[in-house]
Design a protein that fits this description.
The structure is a single chain. The chain is 35% helix and 32% strand. The chain has a single domain, classed as Nuclease A inhibitor-like (Nuia), CATH 3.40.1460. The N and C termini lie far apart (44 Å). It is α+β, with helices and mostly antiparallel strands. The protein has a five-stranded antiparallel sheet. Strands 1-2 form a two-stranded antiparallel ribbon.
């Protein structure tokens, strides 16, 4: 594989790889929440309303958009004081990040709600369908 080229998987291979990569992975905030893959419907446009509808969320939900890199920067940075388990988790999040980057376009992070926040890392697959991961955070 040449440097800079994406290594895309077939849709069924991507879905299986995403399921496997997310298995047993947790997002840590004031609570621990599972990382869950999702595969949504066809994206007609990139509007907030369309994404909310495809994700089954209310239009009135407080929404914040964050850069994809920002979401993963804390999760993939290995610190010298990490335990072996923390290092392993950071490497797993790095693998997840690369999998999403290689198979989805226009990746963004959407956060819905206050205090109890639904987090979606969303992109579009080669067929224009929404896909990504979802999790929850508690921030008081």
């Amino acid at each position: 594989m040449e440097s800079g080229k994406k290594r895309r998987l077939r849709k069924d291979s991507f879905e299986a790889a995403l399921q496997k990569t997310c298995e047993g992975l947790f997002y840590i905030s004031e609570t621990d929440a599972e990382i869950i893959p999702f595969f949504g419907g066809k994206e007609i446009d990139r509007s907030r309303e369309t994404i909310l509808k495809l994700l089954g969320l209310e239009k009135t939900a407080p929404t914040e958009e964050r850069p994809f890199d920002q979401f993963f920067s804390r999760l993939t940075k290995i610190q010298d004081w990490f335990t072996p388990v923390e290092t392993k988790n950071a490497k797993r999040f790095l693998k997840l990040r690369k999998l999403l980057e290689n198979n989805l376009e226009d990746l963004i992070v959407l956060r819905f709600g206050r205090i109890q926040i639904d987090i979606y890392v969303v992109g579009t697959d080669r067929n224009g369908n929404l896909a990504g991961i979802k999790t929850k955070a508690v921030e008081t």
